[in-house]
Amino acid sequence: MDLNLSPEDRAFRDQARAWFQRNVPRAELKTLEERRAWHRTMYDAGYVGMGWPTEYGGRGATPMQQAIAADEMARANAPAPINGLGVGFIGPTIIIHGTPEQKQRYLRKILTAEEMWCQLYSEPNSGSDLASLRTRAEDRGDHFLVNGQKIWTSGGHIADWGILLARSDPGVAKHKGISCFLFDMRQPGVEVRPLKQITGSSEFNEVFMTNARAEKRDLIGRLGQGWEIAQTTLGFERGGNSMARVTRYASAFDRLVDAAKKIERGGKPLLEDPVVRAKLGNVYAEMEVQRYAALRVLSALQKGASPGAASSITKLSYSEFEKRYYELCLEILGPYGQVTDGGLEETTLDVDSSSGVRSSWAYAFLWARAGTIYSGSSEIQKNVIGERVLGLPKEIRADRVAKA
Ligand SMILES: Cc1cc2nc3c(=O)[nH]c(=O)nc-3n(C[C@H](O)[C@H](O)[C@H](O)COP(=O)(O)OP(=O)(O)OC[C@H]3O[C@@H](n4cnc5c(N)ncnc54)[C@H](O)[C@@H]3O)c2cc1C
Fold this sequence. Notes:
Blueprint: H1 7-23, H2 32-44, H3 63-75, H4 84-97, H5 100-111, E1 117-120, E2 136-139, E3 143-150, E4 161-167, E5 178-184, E6 190-195, E7 204-215, E8 219-220, H6 226-239, H7 242-262, E9 264-265, E10 268-269, H8 274-302, H9 311-333, E11 348-352, E12 358-360, H10 361-371, H11 378-389, H12 398-403
Parallel strand pairs: 1-4
Antiparallel strand pairs: 2-3, 3-7, 4-5, 5-8, 6-7, 9-10, 11-12
Helix pairs in contact: 1-3, 3-7, 4-5, 4-6, 7-8, 7-9, 8-9, 9-10, 9-11
The structure holds flavin-adenine dinucleotide (FAD).
């Protein structure tokens, strides 16, 4: 693994650094329209959908360039672009499985965020066991009639379109009877109800579909190919951008150390407490492990290799680390870590979470739980690692354990 940037990559980094320094909005972006305008500025400068092929409006950038740009964004504390699900994995799924007409109709508006997208996969009784989903899509000749309920639909309340998994053939094995559609969220028969989260915000929704329509032209791939298409989407989703995450941890760490210098307990700055110092040292070491793990993934991607099932190792590792990390932050900050609205300037944390809000330590701590659930919970990642990376048997039979 070569950890040095090539001269071209260094030049690209300098250019990206200067651009973000010049252009990052000074004031907090409060409305969707303000965030859309910032997204558009980034898109026009070539920093949205960088990995997409140029023929579909992307930049055809290398994994290294994408990581550099994400890193510079995190360093400049720039608000995240919007339409993350669309740009991150729904668009790339359409690029792989879509028809020329679908690509022509949908891709550019995903990149520019003129149309917002959501993912309609999970149902109340089908999360980890997604293949058991029950939403139905019945063939009615010129269209499919859709009935059912989805849940945990991130951004469903602002979405114009969704990528939908529905059962089109209840008579075959559960993985085989699922199809994938591009689904109009603004039609009659679609009701979106926001859900209040532990963080206090409402990014999730329940979506009820009653005699709604999916057009024939909006079927992606073949009828019954939905499971395979879902795996494409989830592969993009689990990959994530590990380098940018590490940069965010590092910037939070600097703020934590600053806060520990200023907050006094027992008449002394917290940073002079040997227990606090030892804990900070431990978490710093863990953070470096995350950095090298991220570099290893990047190096594999740069050589054209796909991490495949091994992406589960990265996802399990960073999401569990993130929980431990923010737990420690709150432990060190004590009551200051509970502040959710304003408070001492040095104890608030400007993190761009998926919602794009500027948040507090408490928000980051609560949000860290989500990473161990979405795109497959930690237990599911362990199953994948056990079965597909280590080649362990799917079930351990009690009689064999007894003999061993
Ligand atoms: C922040 C966030 C955003 C999300 N956004 C979306 C979205 O936009 N669209 C969408 O469709 N979904 C979304 N989801 C839903 C997500 O995909 C599901 O929550 C996830 O797949 C888990 O499903 P579940 O919540 O039904 O839990 P369950 O599957 O009911 O799991 C409950 C518990 O049982 C464990 N478990 C389940 N099966 C096994 C097993 N075989 N072996 C061991 N343990 C097991 C799980 O690990 C978990 O601890 C989002 C979730 C989060 C947290």
